[in-house]
């Protein structure tokens, strides 16, 4: 069992990699915020400097379009810079100081000082469908580095050369900025990834991928003698609910947007709307078919994903009562096709498929229809008048990254507000209009949801993602010279702090 460390290129054992991360943690966790922030900015700059090289590699290995990849690489740079700002600000440490108080209402209170600390080395399983933003230098890596945790990335086999080159570039930038060598390391094999989940030096893991693999890794993380959290994003079908009034007001615009959201990047997005719920009797077939026929074919990421896509589409189409609204295609290519790697036999180019079913059939068919189809495929569900949509979501779509509602202009009633509140129980992000495939990289973003969308309650996008890799530590009656810098009276890092003053409880 071997692993590749970046920027070094010689083989190292998994134990070497894990222990190196543990050694690095001792110094990295004490690094002043300014140095960590500068390192994150340096990594972003290094990625920008090598953009042409990295995008070309990503195109060859994934088949994704150049424009999509350049946008994703920019997002990756923004994530790093956003977390640099978080580190510099210091509010993420959540520093709380309780002044010693002999007159505290519950009895004498000691001097207590609490802040958040990095958890330790983090293992990050890179995703296949985001070779930049959820891969070697993606959001999970950025959040963990910002927290002060060394990162070991398990590279995805779908883009191995891109992973290695990205790790070389980013690791060199981090070291040049003053972080310890080994702050970012890379392993390649599946066996190495599994072994690291169970290694005592690793204190948390992040995973983006299938529900089956995510559950296996989460079970191993939980079965350790010292269990660790595995923050897994396991997939989502992201239902979109449409009212009759919304369709009446803007059917062509709405249905065209639906097709575009399903088809973008060949449907290989965790926020793709897998189901569109519309009232029975509404005319939607022609508009969907008209938009779908204009979508050009797009390569799927790799032959394994193509096999899974064909298998799931065949399963859905084999259910009695499923009506095909637009039949897309799957074309198997060879090494001579544009966008196919030299050894790319088995790659597939696809166009989108849309089907329709009545709500009662969806209930009867169960997993055959409800399970995610990873690719450009979606199911239109026709619901009867008077249907309680929140109850349908609770029954059939209990945990999702997103839920979307399209209402008419004058449908903002108390009844609709109650419906929205009920929907919030089943998703991390509720959209009122728009489409879920746009995920803003901002402080307020929540990219996570109830099971089975994710394994834990957290977000992998936005600044709140740093919280997954921090833990609270309090010091009681500690001398100033023994306290960490954020907890000292002189506050040398200048971080925001909440202070419970002596005597304040007397006025409660």
From TrEMBL:
<dbReference type="Pfam" id="PF00171">
    <property type="entry name" value="Aldedh"/>
</dbReference>
<dbReference type="InterPro" id="IPR050740">
    <property type="entry name" value="Aldehyde_DH_Superfamily"/>
</dbReference>
<dbReference type="InterPro" id="IPR016162">
    <property type="entry name" value="Ald_DH_N"/>
</dbReference>
<dbReference type="InterPro" id="IPR016161">
    <property type="entry name" value="Ald_DH/histidinol_DH"/>
</dbReference>
<dbReference type="GO" id="GO:0033721">
    <property type="term" value="F:aldehyde dehydrogenase (NADP+) activity"/>
</dbReference>
<keyword id="KW-0560">Oxidoreductase</keyword>
<feature type="domain" description="Aldehyde dehydrogenase">
    <location>
        <begin position="7"/>
        <end position="387"/>
    </location>
</feature>
<dbReference type="InterPro" id="IPR015590">
    <property type="entry name" value="Aldehyde_DH_dom"/>
</dbReference>
<protein>
    <submittedName>
        <fullName>NADP-dependent aldehyde dehydrogenase</fullName>
        <ecNumber>1.2.1.4</ecNumber>
    </submittedName>
</protein>
<dbReference type="InterPro" id="IPR016163">
    <property type="entry name" value="Ald_DH_C"/>
</dbReference>
């Amino acid at each position: 069992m071997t692993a590749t460390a970046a920027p070094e290129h010689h083989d190292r054992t998994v134990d070497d990699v894990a222990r190196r991360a543990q050694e690095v943690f001792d110094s990295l966790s004490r690094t002043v915020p300014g140095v960590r922030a500068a390192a994150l900015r340096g990594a972003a700059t290094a990625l920008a400097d090598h953009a042409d090289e990295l995008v070309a590699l990503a195109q060859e290995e994934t088949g994704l379009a150049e424009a999509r990849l350049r946008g994703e690489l920019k997002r990756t740079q923004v994530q790093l810079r956003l977390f640099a700002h978080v580190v510099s600000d210091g509010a993420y440490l959540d520093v709380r100081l309780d002044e010693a108080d002999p007159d505290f209402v519950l009895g004498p209170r000691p001097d207590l000082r609490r802040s958040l600390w990095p958890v330790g080395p983090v293992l990050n399983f890179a995703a296949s469908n985001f070779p930049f933003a959820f891969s070697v230098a993606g959001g999970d890596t950025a959040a963990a580095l910002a927290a002060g945790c060394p990162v070991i990335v398990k590279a995805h086999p779908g883009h191995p050369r891109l992973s290695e080159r990205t790790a070389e570039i980013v690791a060199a930038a981090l070291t040049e900025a003053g972080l310890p060598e080994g702050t970012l390391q890379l392993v390649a094999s599946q066996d190495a990834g599994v072994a690291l989940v169970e290694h005592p030096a690793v204190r948390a893991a992040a995973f983006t991928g299938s529900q089956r693999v995510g559950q296996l890794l989460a079970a191993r993380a939980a079965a350790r003698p010292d269990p660790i959290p595995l923050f897994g994003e396991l997939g989502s079908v992201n239902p979109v609910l449409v009212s009759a009034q919304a369709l009446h007001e803007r059917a062509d615009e709405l249905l065209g947007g639906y097709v575009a959201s399903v088809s973008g990047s060949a449907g290989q997005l965790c926020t793709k709307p897998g189901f569109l719920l519309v009232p029975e009797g509404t005319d939607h077939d022609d508009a969907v078919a008209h938009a779908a026929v204009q979508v050009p074919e797009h390569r799927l990421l790799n032959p394994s994903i193509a096999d899974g896509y064909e298998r799931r589409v065949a399963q859905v189409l084999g259910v009695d009562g499923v009506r095909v609204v637009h039949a897309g295609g799957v074309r198997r290519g060879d090494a001579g096709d544009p966008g196919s790697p030299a050894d790319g036999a088995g790659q597939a180019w696809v166009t989108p498929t849309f089907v329709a079913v009545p709500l009662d059939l969806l209930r009867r068919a169960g997993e055959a229809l409800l399970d995610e189809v990873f690719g450009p495929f979606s199911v239109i569900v026709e619901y009867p008048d008077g249907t309680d949509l929140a109850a349908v979501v609770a029954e059939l779509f209990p945990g999702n990254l997103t839920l979307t509602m399209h209402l008419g202009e004058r449908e903002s009633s108390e009844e609709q507000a109650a419906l929205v509140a009920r929907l919030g129980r089943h998703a991390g992000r509720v959209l009122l209009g728009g489409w879920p495939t746009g995920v803003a990289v901002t402080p307020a973003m929540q990219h996570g949801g109830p099971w089975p969308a994710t394994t834990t309650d957290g977000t992998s996008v936005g600044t709140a993602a740093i919280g997954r890799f921090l833990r609270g530590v309090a010091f009681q009656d500690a001398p100033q010279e023994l306290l960490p810098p954020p907890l000292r009276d002189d506050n040398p890092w200048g971080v925001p702090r909440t202070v419970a003053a002596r005597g304040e409880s007397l006025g409660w």
